[in-house]
Amino acid sequence: MNFVPKMNRRAFVIGSAAGGLALAFGPKAALAAPGDRAQFLENLTPNELGIWVAVKPDDTVAIRIVRAEMGQGSQTGLAQLVAEELDCDWSKVTVEYPTPADNVKRKRAWGNYNSSGSRAIRESNQYVREGGAAARMMLIAAAANEWKVPASECSASAGVITHKASGKTTTYGKVAEAASKLPVPEKPALKKPEEWKIAGKPLKRLDTADKVVGKMMYGVDFTLPGMLNAAIKDCPVFGGKVKSFDAAKVSGMKGVKKVVQVDDKSVAVVADTWWHAKTALDALPIEWDKGEGAKVSSESIAKWLEEGLTAETKFVGNKAGDAQAAIAGAAKKVEAVYAYPYQSHACMEPMNATALVTADKCEVWTGTQNGEAAYAAAIAASGLPADKVDVHRLMLGTGFGRRTRSEYVTEAVSIAKQMPGTPIKLLKSREEDMTQGVYHPVTQCKLTGALDKDGNVTGLHMRISGQSILAYARPEAMQAGADPAVFQGLNPGGAEGAFGYEIPNLLIDHSMRNPHVPPWFWRGVNNNQNAIYLECFIDEMAHAAGQDPLAFRRKMMAKFPKHLGVLNAVAEKVGWDKPAPQGIHRGICQHMGYGSYVAAAAEVSVTGNKVKLHRIVAATNPGHAVNPAQIERQIAGSFVYGLSALFHGGITIKDGAVVETNFDTFGSLRMSEMPKVETVIMPSNDFWGGVGEPTIFVAAPAVLNAIFAATGTRFRTFPLKNQNLQLA
Asked: Is the pTM of the predicted complex or chain greater than 0.85?
């Protein structure tokens, strides 16, 4: 079995840059080379043992994965779960991707393709494990039939089947064909976590080798014979339209093949190379009808949201007792207003898709977080029936929620439809990708807390004013006009984000304000700002009560043992009960979302307007830990994302359009700014939670509370670059 060496990202990068790079790779994912279209069609290995497993005569095990891999490790984790129940030789595991069209042909046998909301493993673990267990039973039964012995007398381990009484053995590959003809067992028994040999272990990722040697195929790499390239430009103001454009002005430019209107808001140029397409597009005279959105700015949005902090509202997310009465009768009242800005997903690989449309066929090659959604978009845009359409998944150059949306697939198909028989690769420029995206929603929050004479919290009112993602993205999911997703992490119970404090009088409500800027699901979604609002304000109340922030929290958490468990874990590891080193100050917080419990403690120092992030300790209870090494990487990566947004991010609006166009104005943490990250993984093995998103919630509030401890100043509007606070 191949285990991951103990190595962090900083050590790896510094060590590699110092002059040497030596890597040892474990099993390699067998991914079809996307340059060969034939390999995508009917590409599933024969000798199927159910739908999740196929075994070749050489004992190679093909495991089907339909959830997206975008760096989070789901491909490896899901393969581990299947391989564990299959009890195969992990070194012989490969991965296959059934396309959405394959899924339709099998009456959606593979189920949901969506990889968002940290759901890839937590949502599909049961049925993929059952698929592995059923395949193992089929292989054992085939061997037993051959030996004419009861299957109950046979066992399997590492791809070898043994009949102990006779000493006979065989391999999976030798009986796979016979096994594939047997009925698939239903609801087979599954192993307990304490029995795991492959799952639960820090195995090397299946996709690392191809990435390091440049073999991994992303959408930007994909080519087809005779392919042309398209660059696209939308109206800079959301909701605006194309008024007119003069194609004749650029039609004679080098490499240009065609100028097309894609829809009512966008125009594209198709050329022999993408650079020729972009150059012509930049020169194309376009007149826009910018509409009413052109009158909107960040300032006008902020004023509108501020009005919502005191407006009447009917959208209540969590209520207990009478918060208003408790506040009115409080010995001490604490009040604060926080604001969180729009954020761009800022995927390293801009949105792109390659489409080939003929009279009776539409094929798309792209990176998507939801193959079925991309498939539906291709069907709608092509106008062809489902059995004439397919979407082939390429590796994602990050997703963060952005690639759950499929408008770039629609656009690519729409362009290709105007040039039938010619493959068209649509690639958005970085600037177009940044300014014509969908964004983490903008909100403000007014918090009012009540303390009694002993410093106990007797009441809390949280009024959130701002945008609803569901109103834009999934209006059918609204509940009586309200958006339940607004209250992530603040709910009275449930797996998606339960409020972790006992407060006798509580009111959490929402005043909906939806500006013209389109909101979307951004890694961590509404938990990000809700964790800042709640956990920083809990800190404010603790200091107003003259109490230690950890002890103050603990008093309200007796009925929330899992919340308290991760909080105690980070407190212990950071040494909260001991003085911090000279000049170092600490902050702490906890939150719950996507089924998991997370907490963080940060150590920072502040000199003038420079903040040095020294250390962050993070604890997570995801229920089950399928690959502990990958969880550590996910935590570190989520801190990069969350802290980048806190210090360097923020999208602003001027004259209805996005101001920030590239990484020079919408930045990310540098290596020198990244703190040391220490993780505590504490699975309780009694539920299945997410990993990719939850720990992002606690990065910002832990650091903000530490900054307050260092400076005595509360920062309540973000990003911190706008407060003249910089990372050292």
From this structure: yes
